[in-house]
Amino acid sequence: MKIFMTGATGFIGGATARHLVEQGHQLTCLVRDRSKATGLSDLGCELVDGDLSSRPALAEQMKGHDALLHNAALYEVGIPKDRIPVLRKANVEGTANTLEAALEAGIPRVLYVSTCAVFGNTHGEVATEDFRRPDLDSPGGLEFTSVYEETKYEAHQIALNLIKTRHLPCVIAQPGGVYGPDDHSELGSTMHQFLDGKMPMVPFPDFGTGLTNVEDIAAGLALILDKGEIGECYILNESNFTMRQVLEEVGEVADRKVPKRNMPTAVLKALRPFGPLVGKIMDQPPNLAELISSADGVTFWADATKAKTELGWRPRDVKTGLRQTLEAEGRLPA
Question: Dmax over Cα atoms in the chain, in whole Å?
Fold first, then answer.
């Protein structure tokens, strides 16, 4: 297929682009900064300059392609207030522009990369694709743990609405927590702090996250693009852990002991007014209030049985994936 792809310079996007090229697909990648896209050029991808702000321009660039893979999004948690409009423009407005452009360009198949975060805090439950947010029936309305969750939820609803009302030929992927070499997300940073001996106490030990190798997410996206049923959602998540369990898995592979003590959340809450300074000292995001609300006792757990049974998705187990990751980063014990 000739595929038009957004977000190909990111962590998941880069792995997905490699996977699709290896399968023999032709990729046209939308890029804002060509200096960050040298790897895509080396793969033989065609690069087109632009962003997600202009629907007519996107539609023109998409014409003649067999599929759209919309992966572009900003993933940031613990952001200062001045970043909120930036996330909203990228995740909500950008998704609306891109998917509507696909309709205008007559793209026959669309894959939108959403996230398990749209389920919100699952409160210890393991979500499947038909999971209903508990706060949907709340008199106070939806209670989002972060601006990221809120904007991705809105984008997810945009995709579902376009499928229903305008027959957008779209299938939706919902990855959980992702790890792999050179991961600079909050999850990756936490792992690196632990491995570097900079973690005297475990932060948010009960925070629940999925854990899937980025190469398996890429393989899953390729499967969904190829075999996924239009209008359906597919979770991509290998295992569910608490943060303490994640570090125990990493520690077992790296032969490192996890700190016995947990970081008291009450201390972080007391430091919220000094968020930027504390964040800089502790290598944490500047908005401690949002960081706490998105992690303290929150679970984002999900089950990928549907993708495994219907599409044949076969992710590697976490220990194998972590060992491969640490080996690639030169962090395995001698």
Answer: 58
Query: Phi then psi for 327, rounded to 5 degrees?
Result: -65, -45
127-133-135 Cα angle (round to 5): 150
* Residue 310 neighbours by CB distance under 10 Å: 15
Task: Domains for the chain: give ranges and CATH numbers.
Answer: 2-180+211-240+301-316 (3.40.50.720)
Contacts (Cβ under 8 Å, ≥6 apart) of 71: 5, 6, 7, 8, 10, 12, 13, 16, 113, 221
Task: Kindly state the tokens that stand for 214.
Answer: 């980025």
For 57-66, letters b (16+ CB in 10 Å) and e give bbbebbeebe
The whole-model pTM stands at: 0.95
Q: Are 244 and 258 in contact (CB under 8 A)?
A: yes
Whether residue 35 contacts residue 49, with contact meaning beta carbons closer than 8 Å, is answered with: no
Distance separating alpha carbons of residues 273 and 270, to the nearest angstrom: 8
SS3 label, residue 31: strand
pLDDT in tens, the chain (334 residues): 999 999 999 999 999 999 999 999 999 999 999 999 999 999 999 999 999 999 999 999 999 999 999 999 999 998 889 999 999 999 999 999 999 999 999 999 999 999 999 999 999 999 999 999 988 888 888 999 999 999 999 999 999 999 999 999 999 999 999 999 989 888 999 999 999 999 999 999 999 999 999 999 999 999 999 999 999 999 999 999 999 999 999 999 999 999 999 988 876 676 666 555 555 555 566 677 888 889 999 999 999 999 999 999 999 999 999 999 999 999 998 7
Structure tokens at 273: 């007014």
Which residues 6+ apart lie within 8 Å of 192 measured at CB?
none
Alpha carbons 27 and 7: distance in angstroms, whole number: 12
Structure tokens at 61: 């660039």
Residues contacting 320, CB < 8 A, separation 6+: none
